[in-house]
Each structure stands twice: as C-alpha cells, then as structure tokens.
Amino acid sequence: MANANVSSVLQLLFLLIILSGNAVDSTSIVKYLPGFEGPLPFELETGFSFQHGVGVGEEEQVQLFYYFIKSERNPEKDPLLLWLSGGPGCSSISGLLYENGPVTVKFEVYNGTLPSLIATTYSWTKISSIIYLDQPVGTGFSYSRTHLASKPSDSGEVKLVHEFLQKWLNKHQEFLSNPFYAGGDSYSGMVLPALVQEISKGNYLCCKPPINLQGYVLGNPVTDIEFDHNHRIPFTHGMALISDELYESMKRICKGEYETVDPSNKECLKLVEEYHKCTDRINYSLVTTPLCEDDPSPDCYDYRYVLTTYWANDESVRRALHINKESKGKWVRCDWDMAYTNDIKSSVPYHMNNSINGYPSLIFSGDHDMYVPSLGTQAWIRSLNYSVTDDWRPWMIGDQIAGYITFFLFILLLLIYFYCCMNSLDLLYFGRYTRTYANNMTFVTIKARGHTPEYKPEESYIMFQRWISGQPL
To answer: What amino acid positions are annotated as catalytic residues?
Structure first.
C-alpha cells in the first residue's frame, strides 16, 4: 500500500511538472489583442528570447523581443520568413501592423481610448509563417539585462540575429525542415545580406541545427551610399522636382558625386545647396504625399504612427503581449537617437557572395521612394554584372500594370581541386569538386509605392505570393 501511495505521489508530481512546463510555454501564446474585436483569426506567439532559453550575446544578456505568426495556410510546410525592419532602431511592429501582417491600426482620430485594430486582406502570413524581430537591442520592446559596454553595430547584429535564429529553431524544431527566407526593408538592406552569408557559412562550418536557407527578400534596401544617395538627383529630376538646367549643371560640374562633394569644388557645393532648397520639404518616403510635422495631425499619413504609440504603450496591450516590466519604459516606433555603429559600408559584396552560393533573391522597389530611389538600386544590381535573362517588362494584376520587372542570372563555374587547399575552411564551405552555381535575382518595381510595403500592401502581397510560390510575376 505504501509503495502504491508513493507511486501515486510521484505520478502526481510528474504531471504537475509537465503541466507547469506547458503553462510556462503557453504564456507566450496570444489569443486576444486589446483593440481587436474577438479572438485572433491567426496563431500569434510573442516573447523575449530568454523565455525559451534563447537569450543572445555574451552571458545571454540581450533579450530580443519577437512576434511570431504561423502561416494561415499550411504551417507544417509553408516557408518560414524572418522580417527585419529598418532604422536602425525601428520596431518590427511596423512590419506587422503596416507592411505585411494580418492586422493593422484603424485610422481614426484619437479620442483618449485604445486605438482599434482591424484585419487586413494582404498579409504575407496567408502563405508563410513570419518572425518579426525587434533588433538591435533597445528597439521596440527588446532590451539588455546588463549594461552593454559596446553599442550595437551592423556586424554585431549579423552575429546576434544568427544566434537568435539558431536557438529559436532549436526550441521550435517543428519548423527546422520548412524553407527559410530572410526578409526586410530599408536599413535592413545593410544587415540582411551579411546575415544570409553568415547563415550559409554556419550551416557548413559550425552551427546546429542547420537552417534550411532558400533565399532572401529585400524592399527598397539601403545598400551603398554611393549608389543610393547619388541617384537621388536623377530621381528628383525624373519626378520634375528640380529643373532641367539645375540637373544638367549638377551632372556637368559635380560629375555624379553629390553626396561627398570635394570641398574645393565651390560651384558644385552651391548647386547642391540649390538642390536642397528645392527638395528639403519633400516627403522622402513617398514624394507624392505631404511632409508631416514632428507632431502629425490626423490629416497626415504619419498620424497612424501616433496611434501605434498609444496602442503599444497601453498597459493592457503590454500584458497581452507578455512584456516584462523590466523591459522598457516608453515604447517608440523608431529610436532615431540610438547609438549605433554603421560598420558595413556596402552590402554589394554580400549580394555577390550569396549569388556564388546559389541563393535566389527578390529585390523590390517602390518607384516613388526618395530615401532609396529605384535608380540607385538598379545601379548596384548592374554593378554585379549578372546576365539579364528577362528584360524590363511590366508585371500585371488583372489588366493593370502593377510595376516593372527584370530577371538577372548569375552563373559561376567554380574549379576547386581536391589536392589543393584540402584542409582549408573555404574548401569545406564551397565544396571539393567542380560546381556550377546559378542564382536568380529578381528586381521588381511597384508603381506609385513609397519606401516600404505599407504604401501598396496588396500589390506587395501579390508580388511576394507569386515569387515565393515559384510563379511568374
């Protein structure tokens, strides 16, 4: 009888341990969001990385906050997409609520109550699972449990995000076999190509579990100042924002170098000053819309960001998202004062390396964005010297032109001899025998769209759906 009682007690304890463990995991599942009517029509998990044993950085002091939404179609087989926002220092909630997520903030005048959320029809989660990650540390709800001796940097973020992915997948092993894509927009264009390279190397050299990397997606990506900023001048001329005379004078006297002008070239400096007088009151994000003030009024596009700030700082929202009290004080959408080291000067070499390793990419560009003009993006793509396999043509939604598209093919015949460099790490990475690598880079413009997918979300969704499914655009 005594043995039976002991056995019963042990069974009860074992059951309690299991239940308590499940209870801990279930705290990150969000079934209701304040401001949204009824239960969420999708599966949402939120959390800080350490909640699942995946703190990152030295001594796991960096606690990155993420929103994870399972694919609404077939999460067991659909692609897994990591989405990084720009800035640096802009919360991934921008992606979730405005660019490609299943809910958005209802645009209405703030009346002191919690802003409302409504469902969207353009969510990329209809066909893929997405991890929206707040990075670098200090962005959104991400924070550090200790004082960081060094400030975040491009190269540092590459390491931390890779580490986060490895540990996240180790805790979510049901997604290990899903095709993985890295994605983002704006400033993530500096970090994400290097991250793709880091994941690829890690899969060969060091890191378990391997990530089933299949390609990457970038929207209006910051890539290289020489390309990005210098092409603002021909962009503004094409948009009739500066005169023919000013443009021709700038071309002749500045010789295409408008961002870092030689101080001795006084005439060019004067022309650049005249250029800024014409363009400084333009909304760089979408040149056809008014420029909003720092405190935007309800008739301004940016007013939705004010509503987001009210929503994310509400205590009921923080409880629903399981935000730690020690996490952050006031949530801000973009921390423009963040101390950050921009130590990747150009991501063009990373695009080339990713091509060598055979990863397809989708580079898309809103053609009314002045921050990263499509002309600059086309220029750095041309610098890769890929062969054009499908020339410039319109792509359609129904019978309407949604934008323009062109395909590039990179082919490399790589000869590596077994008897040479047999013990080299590079040999392990690239392989031992002759290989032919082919990488398709697809460049797409979206007509009348601005800096991020939020300006044309439905067109952006259709573009992504066709590309990720292997369909012709």
So the answer is: 186, 369, 451
